[in-house]
Amino acid sequence: MKYFIVVKSLFVVCVYFLSTSTTFAQECTMEVTVGDNLNFIPTEMSVSKSECSSLTINLEHNGVLPRNGMGHNWVLSLTSDAQAAAQSGWQAGLDNQYIRPGDERVIATTDIIGGGESTSMTFSLNSLEVGGEYTYFCSFVGHFGVMQGSFIVND
């Protein structure tokens, strides 16, 4: 009888962990590199909502110029909002990371960093739509035209 209770208890524990494992999606991390040459590496990013509940962006500036001269950040928005969000951020200034405070078009953003610096931020993927059109870009003044990439959300 004791053997039956132990086996039944193990079965219940296994079923519990199997049934809850899908509700705890893993946190994912992506490495992004920028430098003094005005580009992102990678130029396209893809994330799976079924595998990731949130995404951490680790941004590294491998250049040498300071943040006030050649600073970069990583900003995510809908593609249709990207240019307007970047342009309104220019007026916000470096103290505001070239992001207008409270700008609802900005889904996620890192701080502006300069040569030799790095930063990280984590954001939830809950509000992103699979197949939606998203763009990541640098909001530093004048960088938007060349520093942007496609952000793809999969199942």
Task: Detail the topology: elements first, then pairings.
Layout: H1 2-20, E1 26-34, E2 44-48, E3 52-61, H2 67-70, E4 75-78, H3 79-92, E5 106-109, E6 118-124, E7 134-137, E8 148-154
Parallel strand pairs: 1-3, 2-8
Antiparallel strand pairs: 3-6, 4-5, 4-7, 7-8
Task: Please tell me about this protein's structure.
The chain is α/β, with parallel strands linked by helices. It has a single domain, classed as Immunoglobulin-like. The chain is built from three helices and eight strands, in the order αβββαβαββββ. The strands form two sheets. Strands 2-8-7-4-5 form a five-stranded mixed beta sheet, covered by helices on one side. Strands 1-3-6 form a three-stranded mixed beta sheet, with no helix packed on it. The N and C termini lie far apart (46 Å). Residues 3-25 have low confidence and may be disordered.
Write out key terms for the chains shown:
single chain, 155 residues, alpha/beta, Immunoglobulin-like, five-stranded mixed β-sheet, 8 strands
- CATH topology category name: Immunoglobulin-like
CATH architecture: Sandwich
Strand residues, percent: 25-35%
Largest sheet: 5 strands, mixed
Annotated CATH homologous superfamily = Cupredoxins -  blue copper proteins
- Taken from the alpha-carbon principal axes, the silhouette is globular
Query: pLDDT under 50 segments (min length 5)?
Result: 3-25
User: What is the class in the CATH system?
Assistant: Mainly Beta
Tally of helical runs: 3
Structural class estimated from helices and strands: alpha/beta
* Average of the residue pLDDT scores: 88
The helix content, as a percent range, equals 10-25%
Radius of gyration, in angstroms, nearest whole number? 20 Å
Strand arrangement across the biggest beta sheet: 2-8-7-4-5
Distance between the termini: 46 Å
The count of DSSP E runs of length 2 or more, i.e. the number of strands, is: 8
